C-alpha cells in the first residue's frame, strides 16, 4: 500500500493509501486511537479495518494525526485532530472526484473524531465506532446523528465502561431515519486483547450486510391528515 504525505492544517500528514480500481468506489477513512497513549495508524485494529474496507473495493486511507510518526504539528486535544481528519478526506476526494459516498471508522479517540466528522460531512453514509468513550468525551453534538452505523465495545472495558456506551447507544437509537447497530464483544477489554479476530468478524459482518442492502432503517411514520 503506498505511503503518502499530504498537506494538513498544521503541516504535512503521513498516511497509507490504497485506491480502488473502480473510479466511483466509496471512500473509507480510518482513524487511530489517542496520540498521547501510543495510538498510531499502525495500530493493529486500525490496520485490520483498513484491510477490511480495501478487500471490499473501497478507496481506503489511514493516517497519523498531527505530531505522530512523520505527521507535523502537536497534539491539539481533538480540535486539530478533527481538522486533520477533514483534510485527509478532502485529499482523497480530490483524487477521486467520482466517488460520491464514504465511510468513517474510528477506534477509541478515533471514534470520537469520526463521529464529529460525520456531523460535518453529509457524504458520510456509514460509520463504525469501536470502543467509543462517552464517559471521557462529549458526544452531545450527535443531535441528531445523521447516518446509520455500528457501535461496538467490549463488556470488560474499564476505559469506556459498558454502561456509558449503552447510554450513548440508547440515546442515538431514539432518532428516526437511521439505524444504530450495537454489538458487544464478550470478555473484551478496551484493547480487545486476544479478541481482535472476534471484533473484526463483527465489523465484517456489519459491513457486508450494509453493502448487501440490509440493515435499512424503518421509514418515519407518515402523519395521517
From TrEMBL:
Keywords on record: Hydrolase
InterPro entries per record: AB_hydrolase_fold, Xaa-Pro-like_dom
Domain Xaa-Pro dipeptidyl-peptidase-like: 17-138
Keyword ATP-binding: no
Keyword presence, Hydrolase: yes
MF annotations from Gene Ontology: hydrolase activity
Gene3D superfamilies linked: alpha/beta hydrolase
Protein name: Alpha/beta fold hydrolase
Origin species: Rhizobium pisi
